[in-house]
Amino acid sequence: MGTARAATATLPRGSVVARAWAALGDAVAPLSNPAGRPLTRTVKLILDPLVLRPVLNPEFAAGAIAVEHADALRSRIADAGPVLAATASWFVVLKKERRRRWITDGNPQDLYFQRCFELATAQGPPGSDADRVAASVLAEVHGQGGPTVTGLRDFVTDPANVGELTRLIDAAWAAVEVDGSGAMATDGFLATCAVAPDRVLFGELVAGAAGSAGAADLARPGVALAHGLTDRDRPVRPELGRSASKRNLPKPFDRSILERLFAPLTMAFGRDGLADVPTLVRREISRSAGAWQLADEESRLVLLLGRDASADLAGRPSGAGPGTAAARLRSRWEREAYVHRVLRMPSAVPPEVHADVRGVREAYLRRLWVRLHGREMRGEAVAADQVWDLLDGVLRSVILDQRDRLRSALEREAVA
């Protein structure tokens, strides 16, 4: 059986996609990079979910495609050529209308790529009414109620507000008290939360401020750093900030107030349920000085539960019994073939992928913090019955991201 696997010829998926894409010509240039390859977001938002659909066609999912499937992949992209060309044309029209309206919120590719594909599928290339259709789409995407990134940036950088907001940060951080005397064990809840969450025990942990007490050691040198929540030896008070970028957001405890609020406000949907900008900023200042830099005790407890449940990831098993949250998370992680593949690879090839796998627990805690922070902003408390779905869902999300990065890294190496 091993000989048969070794004899299977494969091609780098990225190379196959790139050649098929190049055959589409200049018609898809707005969706391409300067080298003529599809943009990363083109692959992520259009090709994978809407054209190749690897969930339904697993032969297209791996970083290396079996030779016998390469023609099918190329044909899939070629057959979609007219729709992809129309998608590119619609993207140009929407960007033009965006500039005309002086819209700056959000990344155009994130916001419009899939909308353009829908338009291309339903209507074909832009016609005589393209401007009207584009105006309607932008009004729908950007016309959501609620706060915006532009309003946030204007508020925190307005000289009339800076002094007051800075004083609020100073006062909030001066009032921080570190008290770990109420520490409570989480083992009991984690033992059964995946199948039979104990609501009474969860309520007792919340009432006893177990989450807050569990954050007491974050003030010690190196603890928050080891959790992957900061790049500093210990957390420091945040700045107000002047700019933010999704691509370069610092780790959670290193973000400015503007950066903490930036990502939720770039979403096209859901903003209408958020508070106004001044209220969001003042709440965030208070939240930044709280335990785990979260505001609600339920959130703090869930992050503590995540910390304890993820202790086995990428490390030696602690001996947690079968069925516990820790054992289930570790089992999910160890089932991933790409994890074993990366660990067998030389540490220098590719180094960022090795860092991903070795630092999975830190990535997990960062993602969990972001999920909890977003829920707090939307006023969504976490109930006992939701804890396991949240803990497990965060690991699934981390795994999907790491798989994608491994595939991209291997494709880049193959092309090089």
UniProtKB/TrEMBL annotation:
Source domain of life: Bacteria
Name this protein carries in UniProt: Uncharacterized protein
Protein species of origin: Saccharothrix ecbatanensis
